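Checklist before submission:
- one chain only
- standard amino acids only
- sequence pasted in full

Submission:
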Amino acid sequence: MNQVMHPETNQSKVAPWLAPLWDSLDLKTFPNAILLHGQSGIGKFEFAIQLAKALLCESSGGAQTKPCNQCEACHWFDSGNHPDFISLVPETHRKLLPHSDFEGDGETLKKNKSTRDEVDGDVSEKKEKKNISIEETRNAIESLSIGTHRGGNRVILIYPLEMLRPDSANTLLKSLEEPPTNTIFILLADRLDRVLPTIRSRCRLLSAPRPNRAAGLNWLRAELSRINGVKINDADIESIYDEQGGAPYAVFDSLVARHHQDEKDELTIAIQASRYVLQAMAQGARINWLDTAEKTHKAQFSILLATMQRWVSDIQAVGNDSSPRYYPKHEITLKGLAQQARIPKLLRFWKTLLQSRRSENHPLATRIQLEALLSQYQQIFAD
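Returned file contents:
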């Protein structure tokens, strides 16, 4: 997926709604491992990058003045070459790292060099890996046995933690049980429930809050205003903001991808597919589930599942006389579907979606799974 680097000044790299969390941290008595968790797309990764930089900063000033952005360590970090910063992220996320358009050394993962080719008008089947391999984990853990290059902290950042394979997670667990000297683990997870309890128990848990709607929209408008040529009306911004579950960074990426109209960008493909799924699900019993699966199965499965889950959540909400959270502009349609829905079937489908999300990043046959899910959705409205 093409990721967009968010335009920020040195003082704004921590999202406003995460500033209280930042201010609560004491860099002088920092734990060996933290686990920062919260909804995807709310600025956790950017927060973690800034935190890693602060922990490696060599300024003589107090903790609240770090990172100083002036010392040699800060300059190395910004160039992606700090020898005591280790990042473990899948290929799909490496573009988010500081200046990741370089070939790193043995401690910094190399940028993925794969390219996309058009095959019969479609994106090539070769996709960036979403998992962190056991080899990458072992190499990173083994490097921790060597003393730090700068004589200060060493920081290892792992994101998303729930994407670690079981063997990689066990390798990490051994290091958390006996953490190397001066080594700090910054672990990030979008879904805390998918992280091994044994790993959770060895970390200080930090919960990253989602901003309230007004704060999130204000930040989003300010960020979009910094990009030349991007003009998106407020109605579209608010609509996509709600659809993305109030995750400002995710909305920013969605809107910029749509502006550039990159038809081969994975995020653009997912946005278009999600809209198609919504149009289909709005048909209720008349949904053409075979056609919908055929036209959307090449999109990122996790995004399609999230769209379906949010739609069903709104059906349940309006059925209980509440307002829809994600798709308020479709409230009339949602109310009609809520009246037609068979509640036991709706609840069973909700449970099926929850089960599907547990393995959303490892779909064996996306098209078949979509067909099964959409077919079950149709049955919600049948006697």
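Reviewer check: Residues 120 and 295 are 15 Å apart (CA to CA).
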